[in-house]
Design brief:
The structure is a homodimer. By secondary structure, chain A is of the alpha/beta class. Chains A and B meet through helix 6, helix 7, helix 8, helix 9 and helix 10 of A and helix 6, helix 7, helix 8, helix 9 and helix 10 of B.
C-alpha cells in the first residue's frame, strides 16, 4: 500500500497507472504534476489525481513513490529538480521506452540516491493520448520490464514491482543493456525500416504510381511509418547504441538473402523464408491463444 | 463479347475472372482446364465453367481468349503445349504477378505468335484459394496492369483490356520493366525485408524474449512474413533483376539513416521520418476515401 504517489505527467501512461492503483485500492493520496495546466486540471476533474501541484520538488519529500511519465526529453530536468528534495524513503521510477539514456541522466542528477531509482518500462499504449485516454485496465496482463541497477536498494525495487503487479501487469526483470537491445530489435528497428521504405519510394522514380498500386502488404509493413517523427527521432537517438547493433546484424541478414537471390539459390531463399514464416505463424498463434483466454 | 473463353487454372484468380465476365454478359462459352481434377470438377459444379477439358491444347484453336491463371511455374509448359494449336484469331493473356519472366517464356514458346500474347497482372487477391473462393466482384475497382510488348497486335491488346473492364477492373498500361520495378518496390521488397527481420530474430540472441515482448509494431511489420515460402521464393527469383535494384536503393537509404543516427543528427533523422510519416498518412487517407465511395 502506497500512502502517497506522485505522478509527473498525467497523460495516458501516468494517468492509467494512477487509475489502476486506485482500482486495486493500493494507494492513498495521488498527487499529479504536469507542465500542461489544461491536462492537469482535467486529470483532477476526472478524479485521476486527488490533488494537483505545480512543482514535483514540493511533493516528493513524503512520497512513497514518484512515477516519471512526462515526455522523456524532460526527464533530466525533472530529476535535477527533485534530487535534493527526496525523502529518505522516497522511491523514484519512470516509464520511458528506452532505459540506458534515463539511467545516465539519473546517475548525473541523483548521485548516491541512484540506489532508490528503479527504471521501468510498461509495454502498453493506445493511439490516443492525454488524461482522457487513461484507463484503469491499460496494464492488465501487459508486460512491464524493470531494470534494477547495480547497488540498488532491494526494498525500492520490490516497491516498484509490487505497484505494477497491483496495476495488473506482468513484471519482468532484466538488465538495462538487454532491455535496450530487445526493444531495439522488435520495435525501434522495424520503425526505422518502415520509415526508410516510404522515404525511398517517395524520393525515387514512379513514386505516385508505386503508391497508387501499393496494396495490403505495403499497408501493414508501413503502418508504423505513420508514427510521430519527433517521438521516434528521440527514441532512436536515446537508444542509439543498441539500435545500431541490431541494424548492422539485420543488414547482414539482408545482404545474405540478396546474395542468394542474385545466385538464384532457390533452396537457400526458401529455407530463410520458411523459418521466418513458421516463426511468425507460431507467434501469432501464441498471441491469439493468450488474448482469447 | 467473347464467344469462347478458355481459363487455364480455375482457382481464385481464373474462377473470379470467369464469374465476372459471366456477370457482365461478356462471354458465351467458358471452358475450364486444370491439372487438379477435384478443382476442375468443383468449378463445373459451381457453374464457373460450362465445360471442363483435360488439355488446353485441344481447346485453343477456336477460342477468342485464353487466360493462363495456373501457378506461374507451369506457364512455360502450358505455353509450349498450346503454341502450335492457336487459331489465327486466338489471344492469350496471363495473370502472373511478375511479367519479365513470363514474357521470356512466351517469346521462347510462341515465336512470331508473341504478337497475340498480352501479359497482364490483376492486383487483387484473397486469403483463400480454389474455385470456392472465386467471386464475381473480386476485380471491381481493382487495378489490372497490362504490359503490351513491342510489335503487339493492337486488336489483341484491346480485347484483353475490354475483358478486364467488363470484369469491373481499372486497366493501366505500362511496359514490362516498369511493372516489375513498381511491384518489386511496393510488394516484393517488403516481403523480403519482413522475412529477414523474423529470420534475424529467431537466429539471434534472446529470440524467445524478443518474441515474447514483441507488440503491435512487430505484428504489423511482419504480417507478410507469414506468407507462403514457396510462392515468394518463386516471385523473388522471377523478378530478381528489378528486386535487386530496389533492394540496393533501399539499402542506401537505410545506410544514410544509419549514419545520421550514429552522428546524432536529430534534425536529419526527423526530416526523413517526417517525410515518410506525411506520405504514409496521406496514402491511408486517400485509400480510406476511395473505399468509402
Amino acid at each position: 500500500m502506497l500512502r502517497k504517489l506522485v505522478v509527473v505527467g498525467v497523460g495516458l501512461i501516468g494517468g492509467s497507472f494512477a487509475r489502476a492503483l486506485r482500482r486495486a485500492g493500493a494507494v492513498g493520496t495521488i498527487v499529479g504534476v504536469d507542465r500542461n495546466e489544461v491536462a492537469l486540471a482535467r486529470a483532477l476533474e476526472l478524479g485521476i489525481v486527488d490533488r494537483a501541484a505545480r512543482e514535483a520538488a514540493d511533493e516528493v519529500a513524503d512520497a512513497d513513490l514518484v512515477l516519471l511519465a512526462a515526455p522523456v526529453a524532460q526527464t533530466p530536468a525533472i530529476l535535477a529538480s527533485i534530487a535534493t528534495r527526496l525523502g529518505p524513503d522516497t522511491v523514484v521510477t519512470d516509464a520511458g521506452s528506452t532505459k540506458g539514456d534515463v539511467v545516465a541522466a539519473a546517475r548525473t542528477a541523483l548521485g548516491a540516491q541512484i540506489a532508490r531509482f528503479v527504471p521501468a518500462h510498461p509495454i502498453a499504449g493506445r493511439e490516443v493520448h492525454g488524461p482522457d485516454a487513461a484507463l484503469d485496465d491499460l496494464y492488465d496482463g501487459r508486460h512491464v520490464i524493470v531494470t534494477p541497477l547495480a547497488g540498488h536498494d532491494a526494498d525500492a525495487v520490490e516497491r516498484v514491482r509490487a505497484a505494477w503487479r497491483s496495476a495488473g501487469a506482468r513484471v519482468l526483470e532484466m538488465d538495462v543493456a538487454r532491455h535496450d537491445s530487445v526493444l531495439a530489435s522488435v520495435s525501434h528497428l522495424p520503425h526505422v525500416l518502415a520509415y526508410a521504405l516510404v522515404a525511398q519510394i517517395v524520393d525515387g522514380v514512379d513514386a505516385e504510381l508505386k503508391l497508387a498500386l501499393a496494396g495490403a502488404g505495403f499497408r501493414d509493413f508501413t503502418r508504423i511509418a505513420a508514427s510521430s517523427p519527433e517521438m521516434w527521432r528521440d527514441i532512436v537517438l536515446a537508444n542509439r547504441e543498441a539500435l545500431l547493433g541490431e541494424l548492422d546484424r539485420y543488414a547482414a541478414v539482408v545482404a545474405d538473402l540478396r546474395a542468394r537471390i542474385a545466385d538464384g539459390d532457390g533452396a537457400g531463399i526458401e529455407a530463410v523464408f520458411d523459418k521466418a514464416s513458421r516463426t511468425r505463424l507460431a507467434w501469432q498463434a501464441a498471441r491469439d491463444a493468450a488474448t482469447s483466454r
